[in-house]
Amino acid sequence: MPIKLFRAFICFMSNTKQYPKQSFTVLFFAILVFASACGGSKTAQSKENNSETKSDNAVQITTTKAVSRDIPAYIQTTGSLTSDEVSDVASQTSGQIIATPVDVGGFVKQGDVIARLSQKDARLRLQQTLDSVKQAEATVRQAEARLGLSQNGSFLSATIPEVRAASANYEQLISELKLAEVNEKRYRELVESGDTAMIVYDQYRTTRDTAKSKVNSAKQQLEAVINSAKQNNQAIKTAQVAVESAKTQVSIAEKAVGDTIIRSPYSGFVNNRPVAVGEFVTSSSIIATIVRSNPIKVQLKIDEGELPNITIGTGVSIAVAAYKDRKFAGTVTAINPSLDIATRTATVEATIENGNNILRSGMFAAGQIARSGGTKAVFIPSSALYSDQNTQSYRAFVIEENVAKLRVVQIGQTENDMIQILSGIAADETIAVSNIDKLFEGAKVIQ
């Protein structure tokens, strides 16, 4: 339509001689009014189309609420890892080193050999003590044989052959004495009655006296045999004591042989080995230094105000730079009763399980100690966050009246698919959880 009007106006201008000036003026203003009306109509139509386009550009999203929940409270601290035990292993005997099968940095198990000494002298002493035992045992056997005892048999004097023989002789002489006493008495009575001569009686009296002498002699002989048997029995006991003493010396000699092999007192790493093959060492010489690293200890510095919140058995979690994606759990095992005067901090010691021996003494550790009680924290789904690589920050979109509001947030710990928000979003705010890559500040959304 505007083009037709423009052509008509050109045609009119070409024939201005045919029309009066008043007609030209009227026609010009009519054209202006019509063009303005057409332009206004197009502007209105354009605005209407832009409104429809903007409505069509709204982003379809799903939302959720930021939730508040109770979480454990922690004391943030730092410290250093230290070995559970450090042992300077020494030899219990003197000798020349003939082998050192471990090197510095190597891992040894409890009982592993870390050095060997020459066993020549120790084995010689052991053989000498074994010979002493055999000799002492032979002496015991000989003493038992003299008494007629079996090996380790019990002593009874009446069972000894010499004692039995002396006792039998003594009993026989007593019987003869009794008979002689009976005859002496009978013939003494016959002499008194005048029935026999005195010379006959004298014979029987002499026989009786002789029998008495024999009995007394046999008794002394029996007692002597018994005493001899007892002495022999005492010799057995003495020899048995000698045997036990010799066996004790054997045990000592065997230990001396065993002491030539130096073993690790527990599992750990070899931190130092100052000796070499060929050196002569004594009981004061350090053979190797063994460091036990499982479990390993961590010493953490705690402000004095936090001490009431920590007790033995409190849970601890640490992280080290060497393993950034891992945390290591443990428990508080000791609290130093004294404070550092300069920093007003106390040292808390915790034990950390280190089964793979990947934690090493001296490592710097960032720790968390569980505090009694808890605190509130805001959590949102991990799908609601995106990382801005340009600013190295985390961002999320809060939806207010169907408009996206960009928020820069600080994040904390992760629990399953939820992430703690330390700042930037409050509880119960509406959060976009889908199509966040299509959102921007002020973007219209449809839920």
Describe this structure in words.
The protein has 447 residues and is α+β, with helices and mostly antiparallel strands. It contains 5 helices and 22 strands. The chain has helices at residues 2-14, 21-56, 120-147, 161-193, 198-258, and strands at 59-60, 63-65, 67-82, 85-90, 95-99, 107-108, 113-117, 261-263, 268-272, 280-281, 286-292, 296-303, 315-320, 323-340, 345-352, 364-381, 386-388, 393-400, 403-415, 418-423, 430-432, 445-446. Strands 3-12-15-14-13-16 form a 6-stranded antiparallel beta barrel. Strands 4-11-9-6 form a 4-stranded antiparallel sheet, with no helix packed on it. A 4-stranded antiparallel sheet has the order 8-7-5-10, with no helix packed on it. Residues 1-6 and 8-55 have low confidence and may be disordered.
Quick structural gist:
This protein has 447 residues and is of the alpha+beta class. 38% of the residues lie in helices and 33% in strands.
Round the mean pLDDT to the nearest integer and report it. Answer: 81
The description of the largest β-sheet is:
6 strands, antiparallel, barrel
- Write out the strand line-up for the largest beta sheet, numbering strands in chain order: 3-12-15-14-13-16
Low-pLDDT ranges: 1-6, 8-55
What fraction strand?
25-35%
What is Rg? 58 Å
- Class per helix and strand makeup: alpha+beta
Q: How many beta-strand segments? A: 22
Helix content: 25-40%
Overall shape = rod-shaped
Give the SSE order as H and E letters. Answer: HHEEEEEEEHHHEEEEEEEEEEEEEEE
Number of helical stretches of at least 4 residues:
5
